[in-house]
Amino acid sequence: MEENTAYTQTGNNAAARIPQLIAHMERVIRGKRPQIEMVITCLLAKGHVLMEDNPGTGKTVLARTLAHSISGKGEAGNVLFKRIQFTPDLLPMDLIGSHLFDEKNTDFIFKKGPLFCNVLLADEINRASPKVQSALLECMAEGQITVGDVTTKLEDLFFTIATQNPVEMEGTYPLPAAQLDRFFMKIYFGYVDAATEVEIYRNYATIQDNLEHLDQVLSLEDVLGLRKEAEQVFVHDEIIQATANIVRGTREHPEITLGASTRAGIAFLRCLRAYALVKGRSFVIEDDVQDIARSVLDHRLIYRNKEGRLKAFDQILQKEMDRLSKLKLQG
């Protein structure tokens, strides 16, 4: 397969600072480079990310670290960052905002809620009711919020990082399929390895200090420029075909009752382009497909049983990776 090997950068050299951003975040988030890369990939792909794992693994800290590493018009010169702790008694108006009566002007004014920001941390999103979860749908999909008959655009950069506890835990509501489909990726944070955990215990005070004194590696304009640059990353026709084959394969596999949609395929391609940029390339390679396919597609699928979940997607992906490998060997 032919590859376009030209490396492109934004005018302000923002692409060259992506490794610096990753290294900067690793000062706080130890032993989680793949997860950091996935979150940045979703950011540059104009998507949103869902992180699932048990409490205390660093999901919330990662979101805060990313927001504090981008300069903007928020507090302390950061991008506008809001954190919402989702609870069973949360109401949609707590996210969107509400109309308040202005006695001076004898009129109702709209007080914006926390959704009007650049980076939103939706913490433990599956602890809120489906009614509240659905309040996120329009802003994640369309970048706007409608209150009554008035539609208001969100910021040019609106990025949602949602965390959730495993659905088996008490007091949680499984996210509906329509909500899950709005997340470009679902990643599992997991515990760090034994050596990294010991290192964290030895240096937890330094790590906390790093979190409180983060530098701003990229600007808001840098991120918007990188999003445009990601759209220009080269994707070979055979990788586009592989994307289509994998997506269609999820609809045809006997162990999968609900396969991926065309929208999921578009999200897959956008993430491939952004992931290549994160890796320092202006072209997508076969390994990129292998690296991110499950994170992009798996949460959108409904399997017949637990056994099917363990093997069905791997079978689909491996079949396509074998096809790409043969094409490469043949030149």
UniProtKB/TrEMBL annotation:
A Pfam family of the record is AAA_3
Q: State the superkingdom.
A: Bacteria
Domain named ATPase AAA-3 is located at: 48-185
Looking at the record, the residues that make up the ChlI/MoxR AAA lid domain are 249-318
Q: Fetch the InterPro entries from UniProt.
A: ATPase_AAA-3 (IPR011703), CbbQ/NirQ/NorQ/GpvN (IPR050764), ChlI/MoxR_AAA_lid (IPR041628), P-loop_NTPase (IPR027417)
One of the entry's Gene Ontology molecular-function terms is: ATP binding
Q: CDD domains of this UniProt entry?
A: AAA (cd00009)
Q: What is this protein called?
A: MoxR-like ATPase
Instruction: Identify the species of origin.
Output: Taibaiella chishuiensis
